[in-house]
């Protein structure tokens, strides 16, 4: 085996990552989605691969490209698809980082034909999707599990609540109150909260640098 690769800190580790939005079908031509660009997750994948990890990147629909021999992209569309793909890889993973903006609700029924504008109003009935991250928290054995939290108010409290409730090792808080942070764009401002209660605030950085900070934090916590 290649000596240079063998010295990288994540060599021999499998890192499972989710990225992007999910699309929940309404009818054959329409869906419910969100504005996630997928950029944060793809940057994490790239950084992990550069550190020697074998990366499985389960991604909803995005324009992002991953071109690294250690990244295996599994494209999915809906929250249900993402749930299935993630569970196929979790057992054999060492680290899982769930950065996708998964739909919380999905249409209860998908119309088989295009819905026509017959009436003045249209009501869709939505049901809850499965929480992928929480399901991994319940299933985990030795995996280091990382979630994201997108908050607009009571940020720290809500993020700590998610860390605990979903049985995570680390949560990355994304506050939409911070300028330059969030969904679209190339920068992000995040706070790391770990299961020991340590809080690390970071400055506004490129998403590429946020990804490197996150992986360094994970390496420090797992002493990989
Ligand atoms: N998540 C997931 N599956 C879902 C919903 C969310 O895996 N069906 C993950 C996200 O990828 C993220 C974390 O859960 O890592 C938190 O997502 P967020 O939307 O902030 O929180 P929710 O638990 O969905 O709660 P709410 O949207 O009500 O704040
Ligand atoms: Ca949510």
TrEMBL record:
Enzyme Commission number(s): 4.1.1.36, 6.3.2.5
Coiled coil region boundaries: none
Domain DNA/pantothenate metabolism flavoprotein C-terminal: 10-220
Alphabetically ordered keywords of this record: Decarboxylase, Flavoprotein, FMN, Ligase, Lyase, Magnesium, Metal-binding, Multifunctional enzyme
Keyword Iron-sulfur listed: no
Cofactor(s) listed: Mg(2+); FMN
Listed GO MF terms: phosphopantothenate--cysteine ligase activity; phosphopantothenoylcysteine decarboxylase activity
Pathway given in the UniProt record: Cofactor biosynthesis; coenzyme A biosynthesis; CoA from (R)-pantothenate: step 2/5; Cofactor biosynthesis; coenzyme A biosynthesis; CoA from (R)-pantothenate: step 3/5
Residues annotated for CTP binding in this entry: 104, 114, 148, 162, 166
Catalysed reaction equations from the record: (R)-4'-phosphopantothenate + L-cysteine + CTP = N-[(R)-4-phosphopantothenoyl]-L-cysteine + CMP + diphosphate + H(+); N-[(R)-4-phosphopantothenoyl]-L-cysteine + H(+) = (R)-4'-phosphopantetheine + CO2
Region Phosphopantothenate--cysteine ligase: start-end pairs: 15-224
Cofactor mode of binding and number, as noted: Binds 1 FMN per subunit.
Record family assignment: In the C-terminal section; belongs to the PPC synthetase family. In the N-terminal section; belongs to the HFCD (homo-oligomeric flavin containing Cys decarboxylase) superfamily.
Function: Catalyzes two sequential steps in the biosynthesis of coenzyme A. In the first step cysteine is conjugated to 4'-phosphopantothenate to form 4-phosphopantothenoylcysteine. In the second step the latter compound is decarboxylated to form 4'-phosphopantotheine.
UniProt name for this protein: Coenzyme A biosynthesis bifunctional protein CoaBC
Species name: Algibacter miyuki
Lineage: Bacteria, Pseudomonadati, Bacteroidota, Flavobacteriia, Flavobacteriales
């Amino acid at each position: 085996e290649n000596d240079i690769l063998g010295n990288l800190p994540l060599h021999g580790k499998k890192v499972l990552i989710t990225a992007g939005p999910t699309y929940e079908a309404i009818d054959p031509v329409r869906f419910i989605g969100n504005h996630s660009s997928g950029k944060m997750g793809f940057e994490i994948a790239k950084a992990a691969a550069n550190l020697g990890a074998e990366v499985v990147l389960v991604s909803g629909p995005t324009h992002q490209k991953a071109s690294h021999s250690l990244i295996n992209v599994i494209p999915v569309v809906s929250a249900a698809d993402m749930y299935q793909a993630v569970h196929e890889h979790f057992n054999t993973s060492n680290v899982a980082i769930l950065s996708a903006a998964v739909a919380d609700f999905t249409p209860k029924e998908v119309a088989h034909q295009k819905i026509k504008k017959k009436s003045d109003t249209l009501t869709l009935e939505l049901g809850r999707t499965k929480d992928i991250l929480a399901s991994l928290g319940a299933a985990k054995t030795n995996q280091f599990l990382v979630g994201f939290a997108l908050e607009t108010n009571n940020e720290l409290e809500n993020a700590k609540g998610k860390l605990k409730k979903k049985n995570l090792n680390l949560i990355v808080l994304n506050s939409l109150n911070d300028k330059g942070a969030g969904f679209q764009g190339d920068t992000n401002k995040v706070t790391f909260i770990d299961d020991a209660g340590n809080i690390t605030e970071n400055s506004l950085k490129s998403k590429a640098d946020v990804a490197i900070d996150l992986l360094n934090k994970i390496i420090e916590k797992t002493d990989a």
